[in-house]
Amino acid sequence: MTNTIINGMQWGDEGKGKIVDLLCPAFDVVVRYQGGDNAGHTVKFEDRHFALHLVPSGVLHPEILCVLGSGMVINPDTLFRELDGLLEAGVDFEGRFFISKRAHVVLPIYPVLDQARETAMGKSQIGTTIRGIGPAYESKITRFGVRMGDLLSSEWKRRVEEQVARLGREIAALGAEVPDEQEVVARCGDWIERLRPFMAETESLLNGWIAEGRNLLFEGAQGARLDVDHGTYPYVTSSSPTAGGACTGSGVPPTSIDGVIGVLKAYTTRVGGGPFATELLDSTGEHLRDRGNEVGTTTGRPRRCGWLDLVAAGHARMLSGVDSIALTKLDVLDELEEIQVCVGYRLDGEIVKGFPASLEVVERVDPVYESLPGWKSNTVGALELSDLPQAAQDYISFVEQHLGATVGIVSTGPRREETIVRRDETLSRLTSGGLAAIVEGAAEVEPPARS
Ligand code: IMP
Prior knowledge:
By secondary structure, the protein is α/β, with parallel strands linked by helices. It folds into two domains: 3-92 and 201-442, Adenylosuccinate Synthetase, Chain A, domain 3; 104-197, Adenylosuccinate Synthetase, subunit A, domain 2, CATH 1.10.300. The chain is built from 14 helices and 20 strands. The strands form five sheets. The protein has a ten-stranded mixed sheet with strand order 9-7-5-2-10-1-11-15-19-20, sandwiched between helices. Strands 14, 16, 17 and 18 form a four-stranded mixed sheet that branches. Helix 3 crosses helix 4 (133-141), helix 3 runs parallel beside helix 5 and helix 5 crosses helix 6. The chain is globular and about 65 Å long. The protein starts with a strand and ends in an 8-residue tail after the last helix.
């Protein structure tokens, strides 16, 4: 029995969806524990691509149980669009998809408030995904929120009306149009019967499955640098994408967690505002954006690109206790002559220790780079580390040495077979000894057959 957390080690968009999909053969359950439809990844199923924002990637594996945990904020309109897309593609999720009654509903007024606030902030805006994530979490913390389970109670209309009245005042003060209260109520009412069969006390389900010896995979959304407590506040999301969030957001105790796989992109990207020490505003940044297809899945915004920042990644490793690293998009570096890696921050001539809490400091630091030779050859589709050019192997060793964790998985393209799975002890332990099935899955050209 093994319960493993998958975390993003940067600003999200590290390629967690592919890693979760790859590891599914070794697991029975995939759980999302935070965030909402601000997250997103594209999944290929047979000849179709579609974007999943809420439903875990595991849904494409016919045996996997999928859970939207209590720490999430869920927009039912987005959820139904995804479920419809899956049904159309012939993916049967009946009896294996569960929504926590304790998760919060993203009411239709939340994105309106999110947008109104961003507009009002002008230049200093966060650059949110405008999915209403901030207002949803803020409503939860102020205890005015509406939970998924509340929609099944006799109280739901009153709670929704009160929220529309409360937040409508702020929207009006910001000069934006306030949604009609009864339209919001009617929309929520339309959701209830479709949601009802999926709703469950997921904490009890998850702990029960653990007691039965099933293997759980916790799929983090976003990344450590966007963590509301540990990220580059206030340029963060409103949840806890680090490993600790998996426990609070699922109701599974820390004593049941066996380890953490950190997903790290071979360079860095960020969407939205906020400091980014290794950002490249030149042709190399453009090259990374083009070759890496760095466009937001949720918002379509071009992502800011830069060199790998091992100060930020080291902080993420510490926060989440990363045992094994999945290094993604290595192939995006294939054509570069020289690759820079940030190994420290300097402020006013002095080396700064750790990742500074002060936004002012993070904005002012100069990255200290080490320069590594590029490999100028194709890494796509390599199946063993030893198949990679020596300079690429050296890049991986450099990352391992600086972060103090082994790289267990290397991804060199979006497809499953474009993955190197190292048969090492740590990865074997984190996947319940299921490495053989994972390696076999990685060699598969097509995704698994539909049920
Ligand atoms: P929010 O989560 O929509 O409130 O946005 C807050 C910040 O987190 C913004 O900078 C977003 O661009 C960023 N963000 C939220 N979700 C993701 C994600 O899945 N990938 C990358 N950035 C994200």
